[in-house]
């Protein structure tokens, strides 16, 4: 088989065979197909697309290109959640304990963030002593004992995806629905969960800016998961403003803990319950979404979900005094107010600009070698629909510098104020099964 024939076939809009797709993935991973030919195929796919069957085979081949995690020693039906990313997205710290509180195992492999703020692991490391490196045996033992564990990705998961993503990033072929879906789902398949709930973001702070694009990506990933033997659903949720009021690392842990203790942060509470309900239904813990939601709401309100969070933190070496007294979490030296120079109602908050402002403070990484500062971040005082007066504080920057001018101007730019009160944003747009 010649790679040039595979490229020409896709260039001409023809469907690739299973063997042609597997040949490409295996040989490119092994280094026998050069980058320029792989880039040519990526561009052909970008323009000509792939069928649902082609995308599923590509995903399966990428998942099989390296290690796969065997979680068969975990008791029960393992369910995982994946978010396509956003600003202030600390939902894992709410859904994980919620799902664990009803006895459903959550075995989560997570990565570090590259962008606005740290990833799940970076945020957890805001808690002194918390460790994400552990043996497979310890990871499985934690899930069996406590129903929840979060670890760093170990081994060589989906190396074909790593190579292809790096290539797509520099050849203008990142935003292709089949290639994005294959990239995400190959890692989920290799991570070993039985069922997957996808939180697909849409809006200004999301990878997919329009609802139409988000639906297309969600449907593609659901099709892949179901074709490859994983019960998969996708929830399309809003990212036209940050989730909750906190953006950063330690301050996102703080807000998630507060929600688990009963604080009514509406979007975090509602999205956390929504995703957890779908996760527990897929795991067979409840016969219906309505029953799952009702029981999980009780677990949130009676403190059992918070206790599951404490148990999870303690089992991985975290200092519980920081959870029981949230003021002990890392804090920045300066707290700089962002003052509104307009009066009216908050009409828009560009979530991406808020994320970039947080990265300027040190909450995220511009390159993979950058160091995260767990203490810095942004607290939003005003969200879309809130009334605002001239001279009022719209946000607070938690900074190591007394005058973080770049972040100040970025946050001011992010807020759009209008005379009329805008309609409330929808949080959940659609559930795709």
Automatic annotation (TrEMBL):
GO cellular component: cytosol
Keywords, sorted A to Z: Glycosyltransferase, Transferase
InterPro entries to which the protein is assigned, alphabetical: Glycosyl_Trfase_fam3, Glycosyl_Trfase_fam3_N_dom, Glycosyl_Trfase_fam3_N_dom_sf, Nuc_phospho_transferase, PYNP-like_C_sf, PYNP_C, Pyrmidine_PPas_bac/euk, Pyrmidine_PPase_CS
E.C. designation(s): 2.4.2.2
Species annotation: Sediminibacillus halophilus
Reactions catalysed, as given in the entry: thymidine + phosphate = 2-deoxy-alpha-D-ribose 1-phosphate + thymine; 2'-deoxyuridine + phosphate = 2-deoxy-alpha-D-ribose 1-phosphate + uracil; uridine + phosphate = alpha-D-ribose 1-phosphate + uracil
Alphabetical list of Pfam families matching this protein: Glycos_trans_3N, Glycos_transf_3, PYNP_C
Subunit composition and interactions: Homodimer.
GO molecular function: 1,4-alpha-oligoglucan phosphorylase activity; thymidine phosphorylase activity
Keyword Transmembrane helix listed: no
Obligatory cofactor(s): K(+)
SUPFAM superfamilies, A to Z: Nucleoside phosphorylase/phosphoribosyltransferase catalytic domain (SSF52418), Nucleoside phosphorylase/phosphoribosyltransferase N-terminal domain (SSF47648), Pyrimidine nucleoside phosphorylase C-terminal domain (SSF54680)
Main function: Catalyzes phosphorolysis of the pyrimidine nucleosides uridine, thymidine and 2'-deoxyuridine with the formation of the corresponding pyrimidine base and ribose-1-phosphate.
Leading EC class: transferase
Similarity remark: Belongs to the thymidine/pyrimidine-nucleoside phosphorylase family.
Gene3D superfamilies per UniProt: Nucleoside phosphorylase/phosphoribosyltransferase catalytic domain, Pyrimidine nucleoside phosphorylase-like, C-terminal domain, Transferase, Pyrimidine Nucleoside Phosphorylase, Chain C
PROSITE patterns per the UniProt record, alphabetical: THYMID_PHOSPHORYLASE
Residues covered by the Pyrimidine nucleoside phosphorylase C-terminal domain: 345-418
UniProt entry tagged with the keyword Glycosyltransferase: yes
Name of the protein in question: Pyrimidine-nucleoside phosphorylase
GO biological process: pyrimidine nucleobase metabolic process; pyrimidine nucleoside metabolic process
